[in-house]
Amino acid sequence: MSKKEIYEQKTEEILLPIVEKNGFELWDVEYVKEGGNWYLRAYIDKPGGINVEDCEVVSRELSDILDEKDYIDEAYILEVSSPGLGRPLKKEKDFARSIGKEVEIRTYRMVDKQKEFTGILVEYDKNSVTIEMEDESKRTFEKSEIALIRLAFDF
Fold first, then answer.
1. Which residues lie closer than 8 Å to 13 by C-beta, 6 or more apart?
2. How far, in Å, CA of 58 to CA of 109, rounded?
3. How far, in Å, CA of 27 to CA of 91, rounded?
4. Residue 155 has pLDDT above 60, yes or no
5. What is the pTM of this model?
6. 44-69 residue pLDDT tens
7. What single-letter DSSP state applies at residue 143?
8. Do β-strands 76-81 and 37-45 pair in parallel, antiparallel, or remain unpaired?
């Protein structure tokens, strides 16, 4: 397991009781380097959406425990936020809760002269994702072909 994966896993273990105690759901944890800075990001959600106060409550409690445990070697910036409208589907639970919802898929390579597809998520397994297109046809993508899959949102 990489250092990044270890940091994310340890943080998730610390974070889970905090978000559950507050009636939230843990969407994702990521440890990434952007523009020379390391970021430890926690994405939380709840029915009706997350607000700034919710993020602040989780951030304060998480920050105190992270300071105490001190398992991350590099300096980093802690961010707690909502996964946003166009949230990517990463984990099995993300796919499960998104069955029947409209998703956008971007592929690494062209498929039938296009790289972006939108449809209703009807099926998934560990290797593939199936969506129902607007014309009611079904299209299956191997997960290895998918650069991004996220909930679609219309304005």
1. none
2. 39
3. 9
4. no
5. 0.71
6. 988 888 899 999 999 999 999 999 99
7. G
8. parallel
- Burial class of residue 144 (count of CB atoms within 10 Å of its CB; 0-12, 13-18, 19+): exposed
Residue bearing tokens 């639970």: 93
Q: Which residues pair with residue 72 across a beta bridge?
A: none
Listed residue (2, 1, 72) closest to 38, CA to CA: 72
Q: Is 14 helix (H, G, I), strand (E, B) or coil?
A: helix
Strand runs (DSSP E) across 14-143, as ranges?
Answer: 25-34, 37-45, 76-81, 102-111, 114-124, 128-132, 138-142
Cα-Cα end-to-end distance for the chain? 40
The DSSP 8-state label assigned to residue 83 in this structure reads -
Beta-bridge mates of residue 26: 44
Nearest to 18 by CA among 52, 82, 63: 63
